[in-house]
Amino acid sequence: MKKYIITVNGIAYEVEVEEVGNEAAVATPTAPAVTAAPKAPAAPAASAAPKVVSKTVAPTYGTKINAPLPGTILKIPVTSGQTVKAGDILCILEAMKMENEILAPVGGKVSIQASQGATVNSGDLLFVIE
Questions:
Q1: Is the pTM above the cut of 0.70?
Q2: Position 28 in a domain
C-alpha cells in the first residue's frame, strides 16, 4: 500500500492505494482501498502558478459572458472595442469534438478576456460587453 495526500478544492485527503500486479488468474472483488480523512487545507505550493486565461483587466461593469462548458477557443472573429449586436458570434468554442458558437446576448462594445487557442473551464470569463 502506498499513501498519498491529494488536495481537492483546497481540502487535503489522505488516500491509500494498493498496487495490483499482473495476476490474471484471480479477480476477487474487494472493498474500496481509499480512506478519505479530511485534513486542514495545505498551503499552496510556491511553484504552482495559477492558469491565466486573460491578459487584460476585466471591466467591473457590463454584461459578462462566461464559458458555458470546458473547451478550447478555436476562433474569435471580433476584436476588442468592436461594437456587436445581440446574436453576433463572439467566438467558436470546441468542446467534446463539437464546435459551439458563443453568441452576444446584448449589443455593445466587446472587451475580449480570453485568447484564441486558450483552454477554458466552465465559468471562465470570455468577454464583457459594455
A1: no
A2: yes
